[in-house]
Amino acid sequence: MALSTTQSISLNGVSTIDGLQVATFSTVVSKGLSYTSVSTQIADQDLYEKNKAEVRKDRNDFQTVADNLSDSLESGSVTSTE
Question: At residue 81, does pLDDT exceed 60?
Answer without folding.
Answer: no
